[in-house]
Each structure stands twice: as structure tokens, then as C-alpha cells.
């Protein structure tokens, strides 16, 4: 299956493209180049494509889910040289690399939905708004077996679009499920400065109508979560009770004082369960729009979150789910990217980790949040309890973590 573009552009001898071809096709659509100097010039020339933007969604032809259906392969089994890029020291696949591939594929799926075959380049700049959720179906990803990605558009608004993807791996003579992912993308003008309209979605069966309705439910849930911020509403009774119980467990019964706090057995103060990192954002990590590639940001955040969970638990953690990755602001080339990882919730053998990224302007010393990531890991041993020590961490718990942790773990 290779839809959305002509066979000559997307496939070789009828075969589905590999991930290298996916990225090459994205560069063709936008007019980007692998050469840094040519890349900058091509993006500067994209402003002229604004004349091809629709003034309303009604001007655009409706597309079906089949129009955006894409299958792509990651030939780890047949291309040994490729394995080095994906291999980790546990003889498994680096999941951060998979996040990069999912991000690229989601963009191409959305371009397949909006593609106008009469134009040589797309006037749209399609960028990642958030990763709604990634559910792991399998814990082991083999480094020497081919991987298959499939996906298509599942919901469309006026300027935003949802794409669902499925990943499977060929092992023991058959493909088995590995993960399901839901990405939300937004369409912008050629210079990525304002919103742009995208093609409406034409539903052709009751099954497709059900898929679309799930997209509507996802949208409503995201809106509700955004309005539940501690900056807007007070903590719920459940959140207050949880934080208060955690506090009571640390009181010294001999003094019963706020100043006298004790750490219960097999516990860690939450402020000691964190890690930080720094990345200098070089042109090598740019995306087709001359910003830092969202997949690169996800990879770095995941690897820091994994390391934090590993150090906290004292053993190798396994990813269970990726939840609510929000892209608040693009990261410019040359930025100083600060990453901060925090264990924010534990229950049973599950560990919830939040990774916050921000850019630092060295001239003004201003910090700006760019992304927030939530990862859930599982370990095969008892893990320490995390204990709140200050009101600051209590407020952060209510603000960022309870909803995500409960939604993911249960």
C-alpha cells in the first residue's frame, strides 16, 4: 500500500517506502535541501507559495481516509548497516529513534491528505502540535527484524488534523503489534506564521464515522484537560487528600512540626528524583522548516526520562505509554535547550516521569517553555516511594501529574 502520491514518487517497483524515502519525500514537498545553504534559500523562497492557500475550507476538495493511507518500512532485518543507528546496549531498539520516525510519518500522512497534484510543492507548513498518546502493545523491539508502519488521517478540523499510526514487527514468520500512536498536527502558511485551512474529511462507512467520532472525543478531552490547570482552578478534593496524606507520612510524631520531616523507609524525596540535561541545537537536527526537528526533541526527552526512571528504580525500566507531549513553542537552531526530568508519580511497579524543556536566551537570560513530555515506565521490582518535601513540589504534582498518571496507569 502506497497512497497519497504517485507510484514513481513514493515507491520503488511497487514496494512501500522506507523511512529514508519518507524523509526525502518530505523535503521534496516543502522544497528543502540536505545542504544547509541551499536549505535556507529554499525556505526563504517559500513565501511566494502563499498565493496558493485557500481562503476558506469550502474551497478545498474533501479527501477520504484512504487518500492519506501510507505504509512505510524500517528494514532492520535486511539492512545490517541501519541497525547501528537503532541499536541500544541492551540489544534492543532505541525507542527515541522510533519517536523520530513516527513524527516524520505523521507529517507525511497529513501532507498526503492535503496534497494537490497540480502543484509541485505544498504551500502548507504542517507541524506537530502534540502527541496525544502512544500505547505500547509489546515490550521487546528486536534490532534485527523488519518494522512496518501504517497510518492515515482519522479526524480533521479547519486547521488541525489527527493522524493515527500502527507499528508492527516481523518475527517468527509473522507481523505482531508493537504500538499505536495518535499525533495531532496543525497547518500553517508557507512561512509558518499563521494558521492555514486544510481539506475536509469525507467519511465513507460507519466504521470511518466511528473513527472520526473518537477524534472528536479526543479533541473534547484535550480541551477539558487544558482548562483543568492549577493556574486556572483549585486542586480537586482527591488531589488535596493525596498530597495531605503524603505529608502526614513524613511528620515526626515526637515534634509534630512542619520543620521536622522524616523520610519513611524505602522512600526518596521527590526533589532528589530528577535529572537535567543541556543540548546545543545545531543545524544537523533541523526539520524541513528550519527549526529543530520535533522527533529529535522527543528522542532527547525520552532518553533523559528513561535514565531518570532507571536511576530511581535501580533497574532497567520498560516503556508502557507516552502521554500528552505538548509542543508549545518551536525551538530555533542555535538555541540552548535545557531539559529537566522529574519522577512525579509511582504506583505499584509503574513510574511516571515528566520532562520539561525550555530554551535559554543567553543574551537576555530569559527562559521559555517549549515542550512538556509525560512517560510511563514499568519495572520488575519494588520501587521506592516518592515523598513530597515542599509546597512547591506539591503544587507541581497537582498541576502536571495526577491526571496524566491516573489516565496512563489505570
From TrEMBL:
GO terms for biological process: acyl-CoA metabolic process. It is found in: Mitochondrion. The keyword Iron-sulfur does not apply. Its main location: mitochondrion. GO terms for molecular function: carboxylic ester hydrolase activity; fatty acyl-CoA hydrolase activity. GO terms for cellular component: mitochondrion. Belongs to the acyl coenzyme A hydrolase family. This is Acyl-coenzyme A thioesterase 9, mitochondrial-like. It comes from Sinocyclocheilus rhinocerous. The lineage of its organism: Eukaryota, Metazoa, Chordata, Craniata, Vertebrata.
